[in-house]
Every structure is written in structure tokens, then in C-alpha cells.
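Just scan this pair:

***
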Amino acid sequence: MDYETEEQQVEAIKKWWSENGNSVILGVAIGGAAILGWQFWNKHQVSKARLASDGYSETIAAISTDADAVTLAKKVKDDHGGTLYAAMAALAAAREHVSNGAIDKAETELAWVVKNSPLDEVAMIARVRLARVQASLGEHDKAMKTLPKKPPEAFTALVEEVRGDVYAATGEHEKARESYTAALESSTPGGDRNALTMKLNDLAVAAEGDAS
């Protein structure tokens, strides 16, 4: 709309402001609050990550100095349960439990990582270690259920080696041979190939013994 005089333009602006001013102010307030809220959330996330990282660092340092790593790991899990740092701290605590012969406690830590890790790769590492721990406890059925039937290619060798170990422990030598062979033939390196070859040789010796 064209205005003949400056006064008419001013009056039009006043009229528009009287009708829409409150909405504009509210919009600015909401927008400002949203921006401040977003900045606060980002700072909060950064702060959480930093605290979780500090807790994880303390846990690793504690392990290297024989301090109470398990207690520190618990604190990281309690305070930052949904973070990768908590999952890594729990893995470290599980390793400490294994070193101390507390295999059942290691099983609990690893099961927690499987359930709570935000990163699938870390959860898979925990799953493989959990199956090993369960097998060492004689929980062969649980170990088999823990191992994925079709693991990601990057974990095929590790998973099949552990599966072979469980089969070997239960006397299922042919299935163990198939698993060890699958581990060796995996396109992605994993596990100890020399150890796998030795395990296959041991199975061949056992098969000869059974035949005689």
C-alpha cells in the first residue's frame, strides 16, 4: 500500500503494532528462550561427556595402579550409564574381575555392556567376551545363546572361534571344526590364526583317538 504522507505511514505502523505487537514480543521471547535452551543443552551435553570421560580415565588409571577400578567403574555407570565411557569402564572392570578370579562378577559387567552400550561394535565385543566367560563357567548353553548366529563380518572370526571353543568343550568336534574353519576363512582378520590352526590340529588328533 502507498502512503501520501509520512504521517499516514507512521499511523499505519502504529496501528499494525497495536494489533500485532504482543505476538511479535512473544515470538522474540520464545525464539530467544529456544536459542538459550539449545545453548544450555549443548553445554550440558559437553559437560556430561567431559565428566564421563574423566571417570573413564580414572578407571583406566586405577587399573594400571591396582587401585579400586571396580568402584570407579560403578560410579561412571551410575552417573553416565548411557555413554560410551560407561560401557568402556565396565569392560575395564570386567577385565579386572577376570584377573582377580571373580569370573561371575565379570559376567555381570559384560552383560551390562551388551545391554547398555550405545555403540553396537562395543556391545559385540562385550558379547564375545561374555560368551568366553560363560563357557569358562561351564554355562555352555548360555554362551551359545550369547553369540550371534550371523555376526557382522568384522566379528566373524572372533565369534566363530569362541563358538568352536564351546563346541570343543562339549565334545561336538565336527561342529567345532566347522566353526574354526569359518574363523580361518573369514575375510576379516580376527583372533589368533596360529591358535586356530593348533585347535584344528588338536581336533584332528582327537578324531583319530575316537576312531581307534
